[in-house]
């Protein structure tokens, strides 16, 4: 939902917190269902937004499913610094994170990771790679460049193909026209902002102009930041980070019917971390230097031709490269220089260790999308169809070497303890992999019964090819020939996905909708072909050439209503997931634990969501959003930890004039008592109150401010603590959210 608020109270016991949360949620849900939306007032209608995630420009209420839209205005109003901030007030959406990996990826209705597809201007973003605390995720996007974030809640493989198992997050960047007022030919601005949560300082500048048929925008943004604050006794490793982003887009209206756009997006991010958590009797110094480079170039051609086959054709060509490198330098005891003839060397020797763990992806993609409106008999059809091609190269180089301080000797054969079988570097845990995705799709909006009934069938065919390329760095990780060896395999699979939606207009202001949609996700580069052995610690990961694609089937139905004063929506959903790919212990051999990715999971997630926006008067608006879901691992007959607790967000905004406004945003989260295992941590209920606003100092200067967690509540986002042992007090303390924090932003245009 758009702008909302957070309501806070002193810390409660789990039982009291649950009772307090229910006492707030139940009246709120009742109000959502019975409030008089049909009441006539003199206020203006709630602002409309346009969604493009379905490849046709539609209002959210004209889509046979749920699509959430966060506009650039809302991103600015909430002073969002990253993608996690963008969805802060969106119940049912989340962001997974890791220690050094930062924000890893989106979660939609309890499904996350690479099961949710993220695209920017139609370009697939780099995959999330889970490597413990050194994961790689979605932090290389500058939110100041975004025009909107659109989220398809639920399976969406018919339109987006592979990996849209749980949904799609579509990031749309700005054009010059988004900055220019009518008859304005040039716009420039400078931006400055600060955040106490991470000691962040942001400085940015924009220049946009229109000269005849050509419009361009150039935007520069730099951020400096530190580690996040924690409310309570926990403490994160000290960090010093910096990000730099350059965004340029040019649009050329070559004729009344043809438009060309060229976009270049360059993002660099560097973080230095003092790894205090790694210090021990063996490690006296540990520092990390992490870098991420994401470079994208996109060319778009839109053509209005009104031919027999298509009214409009859009051609998109993209190239994106992401290079991530997490380096660690340690001073520690090393066993790489043990001499079997010298027992004194068994104590190890002081050494400097350098480690480099890379994750690199290069994607080239193309897409042609066509649309056609036509009338046949008593029905009208709005067709969208197209084909897509994606070529991705993925690699995971790893290097490590110890330098003995007393002799200067260097070794890349790293043993974990005296006389242990060493791990030899450089190596790769999975082979360099080339992935090709081809797809062709068609979807039709069929209007019947004087446009009171719209039926939306869709069909897509996908072919997925994965070609691993074995080299000496991959095969040099160790000898596991006794446990399956390095018998990696190619994958060549195809899939057909369907959807069927319907929208029925009950009255002029009330519609019902329903949708069945499918999704699938083939095994990726490391799940199918990861082959790694650590004989010193007694485990090995072996490939699995028999993996099958994960699939999903989603059902959703609901109602939407509008009036002069507001709008509401209520939806229930039931999503089923088959053949989840998970790593499991598959056996023991000669004292070595064998792990392998297998299709072992079957899950069901069901729930309900509702929104209610009401313009109470010309100065006062009230927005609400609530989400509840429950997930079951049907293979193990246990709860799914990935599902967030029930959440209500409610925002009351007062805007007496265009010059200033203030809004309170209340977030109420229920307790989380159902977890996968009895010894895992549960979540306490909590309530937050945030206060945001803006004031225009002049027509060209404005300030925005935000006070978050106003009552200094100690709490943790469920995604940060789920799966932890209930007895791991240190880890739980380290994953608490910040206490009261503030943000301030200044914008000056000329």
TrEMBL record:
Alphabetized UniProt keyword annotations: Cell outer membrane, Membrane, Receptor, Signal, TonB box, Transmembrane, Transport
The answer to keyword Nucleotidyltransferase applying to this record is no
List GO molecular-function terms, semicolon-separated: heme transmembrane transporter activity; siderophore uptake transmembrane transporter activity
Pfam families documented for this protein: Plug, TonB_dep_Rec_b-barrel
- Which residues are in the TonB-dependent receptor-like beta-barrel domain? 262-710
- In Gene Ontology terms, what is a biological process of this protein? siderophore transmembrane transport
Please identify the protein, giving its name as recorded. Answer: TonB-dependent receptor plug domain-containing protein
Ranges for domain TonB-dependent receptor plug come to 60-168
């Amino acid at each position: 939902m758009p702008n909302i608020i957070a309501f806070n109270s002193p810390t409660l016991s789990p039982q009291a917190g649950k009772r307090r949360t229910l006492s707030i949620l139940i009246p709120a849900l009742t109000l959502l269902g019975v409030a008089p939306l049909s009441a006539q007032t003199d206020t203006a209608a709630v602002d409309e937004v346009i969604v493009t995630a379905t490849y046709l420009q539609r209002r959210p209420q004209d889509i046979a499913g749920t699509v959430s839209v966060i506009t650039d205005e809302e991103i600015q109003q909430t002073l969002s610094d990253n993608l996690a901030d963008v969805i802060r007030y969106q119940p049912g959406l989340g962001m997974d994170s890791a220690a050094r990996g930062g924000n890893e990826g989106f979660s939609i209705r309890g499904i996350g990771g690479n099961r949710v597809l993220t695209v920017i201007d139609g370009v697939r973003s780099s995959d999330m790679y889970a490597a413990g605390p050194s994961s790689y995720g979605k932090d290389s996007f500058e939110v100041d460049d975004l025009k909107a974030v659109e989220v398809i809640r639920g399976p969406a493989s018919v339109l987006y193909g592979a990996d849209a198992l749980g949904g799609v997050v579509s990031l749309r960047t700005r054009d010059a026209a988004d900055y220019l007022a009518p008859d304005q030919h040039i716009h420039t601005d400078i931006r400055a902002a600060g955040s106490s949560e991470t000691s962040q300082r942001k400085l940015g500048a924009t220049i946009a102009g229109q000269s005849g048929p050509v419009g361009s925008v150039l935007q520069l943004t730099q951020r400096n930041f530190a580690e996040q604050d924690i409310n309570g006794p926990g403490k994160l490793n000290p960090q010093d980070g910096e990000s730099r982003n350059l965004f340029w887009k040019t649009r050329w209206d070559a004729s009344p019917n043809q438009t060309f756009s060229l976009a270049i997006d360059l993002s660099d991010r560097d973080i230095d971390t003092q790894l205090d958590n790694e210090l021990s009797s063996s490690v006296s110094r540990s520092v990390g230097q992490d870098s991420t480079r994401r470079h994208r170039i996109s060319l778009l051609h839109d053509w209005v031709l009104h031919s027999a086959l298509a009214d409009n054709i859009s051609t998109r060509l993209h190239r994106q490269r992401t290079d991530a490198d997490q380096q660690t330098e340690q001073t520690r005891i090393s066993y790489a220089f043990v001499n079997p003839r010298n027992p004194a060397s068994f104590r190890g020797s002081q050494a400097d260790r350098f480690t480099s763990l890379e994750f690199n992806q290069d994607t080239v993609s193309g897409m042609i999308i066509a649309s056609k409106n036509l009338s046949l008999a008593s029905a009208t059809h709005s067709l969208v169809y197209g084909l897509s091609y994606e070529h991705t190269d993925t690699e995971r180089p790893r290097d490590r070497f110890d330098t003995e301080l007393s002799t200067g000797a260097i070794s890349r054969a790293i043993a974990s303890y005296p006389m242990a079988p060493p791990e030899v570097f450089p190596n790769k845990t999975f082979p360099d992999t080339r992935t090709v995705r081809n797809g062709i799709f068609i979807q039709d909006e069929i209007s019947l019964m004087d446009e009171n009934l719209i039926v939306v069938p869709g069909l897509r065919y996908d072919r997925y090819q994965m070609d691993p390329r074995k080299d000496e760095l991959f095969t040099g990780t160790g000898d596991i020939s006794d446990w399956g060896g390095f018998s990696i395999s190619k994958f060549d699979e195809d899939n057909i996905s369907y959807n069927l939606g319907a929208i029925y207009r009950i009255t002029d202001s009330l519609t019902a909708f329903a949708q069945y949609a499918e999704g699938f996700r083939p095994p990726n580069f490391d799940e199918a072909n990861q082959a790694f052995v650590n004989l010193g610690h007694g485990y090995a990961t072996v490939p699995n050439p028999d993996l099958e694609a994960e699939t999903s089937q989603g059902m959703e139905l609901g109602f939407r209503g509008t009036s002069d004063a507001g709008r509401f929506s209520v939806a229930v959903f039931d999503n089923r997931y088959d053949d989840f790919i998970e790593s499991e212990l598959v056996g023991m051999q000669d004292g070595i634990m064998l792990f392998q990715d297998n299709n072992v999971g079957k899950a069901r997630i069901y729930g309900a969501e509702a929104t209610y926006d009401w313009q109470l008067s010309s100065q006062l608006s009230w927005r609400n959003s609530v989400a509840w879901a429950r997930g079951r691992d049907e293979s193990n007959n246990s709860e799914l930890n990935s599902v967030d607790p029930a959440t209500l967000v409610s925002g009351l905004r007062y805007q007496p004039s265009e010059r200033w406004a203030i809004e309170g945003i209340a977030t109420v989260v229920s307790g989380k008592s159902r977890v996968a295992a009895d010894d895992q941590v549960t979540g306490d209920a909590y309530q937050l109150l945030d206060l945001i606003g803006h004031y225009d100092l002049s027509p060209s200067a404005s300030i925005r401010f935000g006070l978050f967690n106003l009552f200094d509540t100690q709490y943790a986002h469920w995604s940060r603590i789920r799966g932890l042992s209930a007895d791991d007090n240190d880890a739980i303390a380290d994953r608490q959210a910040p206490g009261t924090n503030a943000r301030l932003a200044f914008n000056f245009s000329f």
